Amino acid sequence: MAGLENLCVVERKDMPDLVHSLTVERSVLLKRMKLMSGHPHRLLVITAPLSRIKTPYPHSAASPNRIFQSLIALLAGLNVPFLCTDNQNLGEEVVASYLYQIHIYPWLENNDYGRFLADGDL
Known about the structure:
- By secondary structure, this protein is of the alpha/beta class.
- It has a single domain (8-121), classed as Rossmann fold.
- It is 50% helix and 12% strand.
- The protein contains five helices and three strands.
- The protein starts with 7 loop residues before the first strand and ends in a 12-residue tail after the last helix.
- The mean pLDDT is 90.
């Protein structure tokens, strides 16, 4: 979304990319996550259910527990939250909704509506 580049960063990963990024390309991913942690709003969206992350991978010797613990370390150590969605379509919806929310609060404040959630927002 135009205008949010300095405010928000979103990274989306499917399962094969997540496993590859946290094993083979670990240093590259960690560098990107460190850069993300400098933004006020950041989110890692994984287009696979959490249960799939904790299940052995058919085409990789990577440990599901190591992948899961790496995600928890990103959350605790770099303050990069992650969300798991069941599929890519839900992942796209999460990203669009997240970007909308990041955009709407400054807009409300800049237009003297205040920064609050209305009854129908939750």
